[in-house]
Write a structure and sequence with these properties.
Elements: H1 2-14, E1 19-24, H2 31-37, E2 44-45, E3 49-51, E4 63-70, E5 73-81, H3 89-112, E6 116-117, E7 122-124, H4 125-141, H5 146-160, H6 167-179, H7 182-187
Parallel strand pairs: 1-5, 3-7
Antiparallel strand pairs: 2-4, 4-5, 6-7
Amino acid sequence: MFRKLFEDVLENENKKEDVIINELTFFSEDNCELFDFYNICHDEIISFSLSGGDYNRDLEMPGFTIFFINNGKAKAAIFINGKLHDLNENQNELCKYITLIHEIGHVNDFRKCKNINWKKRSCNLVMAEAFAEIHSLKYFSLRNDQYHRLCRKVLANRILNFENYGDIYQAILLQILKTYPQKSFFSGLLMPNKALKRDSQRAAFSLCVDFISF
């Protein structure tokens, strides 16, 4: 079922003129080489001045997005890793679906020039990642079938574990908690509520998935 959900989103997004989505069968750290392999026409691959942290792309990443200019228009190329960890097929498709929604969150941010500002060539890494995670939580929360409830649970568990991953992840978590207070994670409802105060309780979650993409 997760494969079907993935393909439905992929089909819908690929209809838009400003985004291209590929499942990775070839990987390169060289953007031009990657674009040539997937026949993505471009005049410029956008480089950003990063604030809030840094990142390195590698083959283990579940997904990533490269922004570029073609014929004067700003566009995005999303790449989703075809195989994530040593998971069974259904778990793999679940992870790919969650990753795709996360990367689409980055594209929406890019369109708004909010935290990923292509006009100024600037990106706030912490805020961009928080934006994409919040986008994903909202997306899954608005779909109340068993498959999206599972996606929401897996994602919430992973996000709450950010506090164990270092300074950048902790900063991302703090930004997410401004929209989704900790109480909403424990309740399982994950509905934004500005009236809720942050719950000081900490709990150990067993992660179904352990990944993040920058």
